[in-house]
Amino acid sequence: MTIYTLSVITSTGYPYFHTRIKELPKGIKLFLRFFDFSEDKDTPQMDMSSESSFALNSGLVSALFEFARSMDKKIRALEFKSKKEEKKYVAVKSPRFSGDVLITSQTETYLLHKSFKQKVKLIYDLIIASKIPLDSADRIDNKEKLKIVDILTDFTAKEHVHRNEEEIKKAAHKFLTAMGPYGLESIAITSFDLSPIMVCGEKYSFEDIEITLRNIGEIPQVGALEWKYRQSLLKGESVWIYICNSGIGVTVEDRLFEPYFYLLIANPESYLADFPAKLMAEFNLILG
């Protein structure tokens, strides 16, 4: 499991909805991701003295550390993104969002942020947007909550893989047998944000694949039908992980296309050449 919690609040702090999908793991680094669906407003920037700025920053940091401590976590870094400087002449555009919705989620660090953001945007479009303003809205019912969890946990993508599980495992066994002498050790299928769905091969488990992804560092963006490889660590040893974007996948709620990724785990002395392309072609025939 790669996504642990999801919360929907307002920018003024009204707690509208929270769900815990799985207990928070201990001893690993997590991201608390923020998604702003609030209405754009012309908020003048405060012109504060250095003393006032320091006092405000101190209050923020103190509150965040108390919040983290209450969850038995430590904050290592906070990332802020400056607003883009407004141009002198701007075309009139309709607002992107109405209301003041903020959505946060605690996740694994290795998830592809842009892909995960699309999941959250789908939840906003299907369920949250119609309930604005949230402070006087009906609560999310059980059917809606189930839909939220299904979107976050890749229900549609998993069902499609599991329907074709026998063929996939047969093809994977053939590839592992043929390419094992060249260093290939395991094959995995993930959703479009890199949440693992299936692991093929006996050497590595689901947990091993998650550890490998955590230890890569920054995950590269990979275009459709392309692949990139990175070095990682697993059980104290170096491994190579090939990240292949299949270009094929499932469409969720007739709105969001989610392509599969194929992961190839190999030893550092491996030589796979154009094998990732061959694997993508055969797996795509099964899952396409």
Strand order of the largest sheet: 6-5-9-8-7
Major β-sheet, in short? 5 strands, antiparallel
Count of separate DSSP helical elements: 7
Task: Provide the structure class.
Answer: alpha+beta
* Approximate shape: globular
Number of domains: 2
User: How helix-rich are the residues, as a percent range?
Assistant: 25-40%
Oligomer: single chain
Account of the protein in words:
With 288 residues, this protein is of the alpha+beta class. It folds into 2 domains: 3-153, no CATH class; 158-287, Beta-Lactamase (2-Layer Sandwich), CATH 3.30.450. It contains 7 helices and 9 strands, in the order E-E-E-H-E-H-H-H-H-E-E-H-E-E-E-H. It has helices at 50-70, 113-128, 142-152, 155-163, 165-179, 206-214, 275-287; strands at 3-10, 15-20, 30-38, 100-108, 184-190, 196-200, 227-234, 237-252, 256-266. Strands 6-5-9-8-7 form a 5-stranded antiparallel sheet. Strand 1 and strand 2 (15-20) form a beta hairpin. The longest helix is centred in the N-terminal third of the chain and has 21 residues, at 50-70. Residues 86-94 have low confidence and may be disordered.
